[in-house]
């Protein structure tokens, strides 16, 4: 008999706890649903969260999901009360002082749990409201992430942008930027994870951006759609509409994945990933460049050359490809390397590195010549050899000079080109030119 009373008492305690937690959840819902909660409401909300937490642990999935959501909304409720004050009403950025990267991550995780649960249950309570909340606060949260990145708080910026993605999975671009912040913070495992997710959803990031000039300040403004831009031009607030196409980001995504995998010693996996990407996206030229560069990175020059020459058949106007072919040919076949560099310059006349490397090919023997000159004595025969070597060196410098001059003209801040050109001027006793160049350095 006694055991029956114990069981009865236990059942009563459990049912009382369940009843209590239902009351707590109702209180939280009531306060959350207020447009402008008072300071008293905020205090009650926080104390109710603390009271309900131990009760919810053994409750239903629904109670656990909604309680987690309500708990993550504490900063949101605090912000709603504070932002109703006149001093904050016209300053939306003030809202962010109530949030931290951790609290934003918590809100994103619990919001996602709610929408997934409501999709499964077929009964929508907060899904629409969450979507509206995301639409309202997403620009402010993204601005917050950018400011964190500017402060070099890369881990926090990564977390916030990942949260934005969880809140709105229709916008995978935010996950792409989260992965890049992770790279900046040297958190390569997280970057690889996020890039893997982008690969799964086949994100390309290819899009068209819309711009037009404002008549107010003559600045070029960005518009989130063609319709809104065209409307601004139509009503007369803007002029000079311009479209700008953003290329696919797939190549960069796979390049970064490959570099991380190579760093981790998983070279074959990196090659496999890019090969799969090329099969899935045969028209995406950025992936062919990425695949070739992987072989360049791993010093498999023969395969690299084969891939690049194959790609050049389809896209013969890639200055970068010709430049890279020049680099890998410079030791084994300097003449072929020079032809590649010249081809790169023909396509892109401002390809500074090709000019510098052409000069480098002309000056390749300089060190050996100087060493040979140092070994010579003062005999008539040695003096004759010295004069021959000096003439050869002078001829080399004269051949290299136009390439260096062009490189400095294009990029005056190129230290390698400038210092080498100064040495050439000094050796050739071109005093005026050396003085003028030194004044610009």
From TrEMBL:
What are the record keywords, sorted? Answer: Repeat, Signal, TPR repeat
Swiss-Prot/TrEMBL TPR repeat ranges: 319-351
Signal sequence coordinates: 1-20
Give the SUPFAM superfamilies listed for this entry. TPR-like
Q: Which InterPro entries match?
A: O-mannosyl-transferase_TMTC, TPR-like_helical_dom_sf, TPR_rpt
- Protein name as annotated: Tetratricopeptide repeat protein
């Amino acid at each position: 008999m006694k055991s029956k009373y114990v069981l009865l008492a236990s059942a009563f305690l459990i049912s009382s706890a369940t009843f209590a937690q239902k009351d707590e959840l109702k209180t939280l819902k009531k306060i959350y649903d207020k447009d402008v909660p008072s300071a008293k409401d905020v205090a009650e909300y926080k104390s109710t969260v603390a009271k309900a937490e131990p009760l919810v642990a053994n409750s239903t999935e629904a109670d656990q999901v909604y309680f987690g959501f309500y708990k993550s909304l504490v900063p949101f409720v605090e912000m709603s009360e504070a932002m109703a004050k006149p001093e904050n009403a016209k300053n939306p950025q003030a809202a962010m002082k109530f949030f931290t990267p951790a609290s934003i991550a918590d809100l994103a995780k619990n919001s996602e749990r709610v929408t997934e649960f409501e999709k499964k249950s077929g009964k929508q309570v907060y899904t629409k409201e969450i979507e509206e909340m995301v639409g309202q606060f997403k620009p402010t949260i993204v601005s917050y992430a950018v400011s964190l990145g500017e402060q070099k708080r890369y881990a926090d910026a990564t977390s916030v942008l990942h949260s934005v993605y969880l809140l709105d999975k229709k916008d995978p671009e935010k996950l792409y930027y989260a992965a890049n912040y992770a790279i900046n913070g040297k958190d390569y495992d997280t970057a690889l994870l996020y890039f893997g997710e982008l690969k799964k959803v086949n994100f390309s990031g290819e899009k068209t951006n819309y711009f037009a000039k404002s008549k107010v300040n003559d600045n070029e403004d960005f518009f989130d759609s063609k319709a809104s831009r065209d409307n601004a031009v139509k009503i007369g607030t803007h002029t000079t509409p311009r479209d700008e196409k953003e290329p696919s980001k797939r190549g960069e995504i796979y390049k970064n994945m490959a570099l991380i995998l190579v760093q981790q010693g998983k070279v074959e996996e990196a090659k496999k990933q890019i090969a799969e990407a090329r099969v899935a996206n045969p028209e995406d030229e950025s992936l062919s460049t990425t695949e070739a560069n992987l072989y360049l990175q791993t010093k498999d020059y023969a395969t690299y050359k084969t891939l690049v020459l194959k790609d050049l058949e389809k896209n013969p106007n890639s200055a970068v490809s010709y430049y890279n072919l020049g680099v890998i040919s410079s030791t084994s076949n300097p003449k072929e390397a020079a032809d590649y560099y010249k081809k790169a310059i023909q396509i892109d006349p401002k390809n500074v590195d090709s000019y510098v490397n052409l000069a480098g090919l002309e000056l390749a023997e300089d060190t050996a010549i100087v060493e040979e000159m140092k070994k010579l004595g003062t005999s008539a025969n040695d003096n004759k050899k010295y004069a021959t070597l000096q003439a050869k060196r002078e001829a080399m410098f004269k051949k290299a000079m136009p390439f260096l001059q062009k490189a400095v003209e294009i990029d005056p801040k190129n230290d390698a080109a400038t210092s080498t050109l100064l040495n050439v001027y000094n050796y050739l006793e071109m005093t005026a030119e050396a003085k003028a160049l030194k004044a610009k350095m």
